[in-house]
Design goal:
binds alpha-D-ribofuranose; alpha/beta; about 40% helix; globular; binds calcium ion
Length: about 300
């Protein structure tokens, strides 16, 4: 199956691994990267996306999106990804330029050009998509599949005790999408933690990989050390797991379809996601939650992303 992908992303080290999976997948065609502020500021996330295209030597249009969340001030995850979002390696910036078209407008235009064909992959905060949906409420009718990396389905968060970063960065945008998009797929933070990759195995792949792997090794050094400090020996990558669900949908075991709402008011729980597990809500259960992704399939996609034979 050929996947035609439009990826909205805030690179970020785990975004980079997911993007490499997509850009190096024989069954995927990436027709655009729309860029969000998130892990770090928009200036860095755009520069990182352009640099990654140099690394894989591919020409994909890049569209800069919103520099700030819809309502609250921006937060960031520089403590995880480095101040520049790519491990502060001081890489030589790309000479490529992003398109002049705003990400939200590009999402709308491409949804017409590829009507019924596009898989929209959201690897960062949902600001650009919420803006696009507000501009054109008919957008979902033209999108074949929407998969989001985000949320923590039992409120085991990362950026706060109860909230996951992509949702917590722009809770209002997330609520717009979760409450209004007719049918979407979700790979959440807790699924990420449930799919660790052993550090020794990942280090072996980095060692056996090609020059792309050497670039990823360098930009991910700080992030891998951070993860090791938090979670012990295993490595995990939220966006890479989500991209595995995109590229190999047959490898996913789904928990089912549920309503998901975002807490917007709580002092303790703002940005947390509440899942209606008992189907108490009368509104359609529109969020298909991933429970398990086949490890063999996931690892094969990771190895290909790193050029491991
Ligand atoms: O919570 C993890 C998510 O937030 C990942 O997409 C990471 O890149 C950050 O965007
Ligand atoms: Ca991300």
């Amino acid at each position: 199956m050929e996947h035609t992908l439009l990826i909205d992303t805030d690179p970020g080290v785990d975004d980079a691994l997911a993007l490499l999976m997509a850009l190096r997948a024989p069954n995927a065609r990436v027709i655009g990267l729309s860029i969000a502020a998130g892990n770090v500021g928009l200036q860095h996330t755009v520069a990182n996306a352009l640099k990654l295209l140099d690394v894989v030597d591919q020409d994909v249009p890049v569209f800069a999106g919103c520099a700030h969340p819809l309502v609250q001030p921006a937060i960031d995850a520089a403590y995880v990804h480095g101040h520049d979002g790519f491990g502060d390696t001081g890489y030589t910036p790309s000479t490529r330029q992003p398109s002049a078209e705003h990400a939200a407008l590009a999402i709308l235009r491409l949804s017409h050009e590829y009507a019924g064909e596009l898989t929209l992959v959201m690897l960062g905060p949902l600001t650009n998509l919420a803006l696009a949906l507000r501009l054109d409420p008919n957008l979902p009718k033209r999108i074949k599949r929407l998969l989001i990396m985000g949320a923590a389905v039992n409120a085991r968060g990362n950026i706060t005790p109860s909230a996951e970063f992509n949702v917590a960065f722009d809770p209002e945008a997330a609520q717009v999408i979760f409450s209004e998009w007719p049918q979407l797929e979700l790979v959440d933070w807790e699924a990420t933690l449930a799919h660790p990759v052993s550090r020794s195995l990942f280090d072996d792949w980095l060692g056996q990989g090609d020059p792309v792997a050497r670039f990823y090794d360098a930009i991910s050094l700080q992030t891998r050390a951070f993860i090791r400090g938090l979670h012990g020996e295993d490595f995990h990558s939220a966006d890479a797991l989500a991209m595995a669900a995109v590229l190999a949908p047959e490898s996913v075991r789904w928990a089912g379809n549920f309503r998901v709402d975002v807490e917007l008011a709580g002092a303790l729980y703002r940005g947390a996601t509440r899942v209606d597990w008992q189907h108490r809500d009368t509104r359609p259960a529109n969020v298909r939650i991933a429970e398990r992704i086949d490890e063999v399939s996931f690892h094969a996609l990771l190895r290909r992303a790193l050029g491991v034979a």
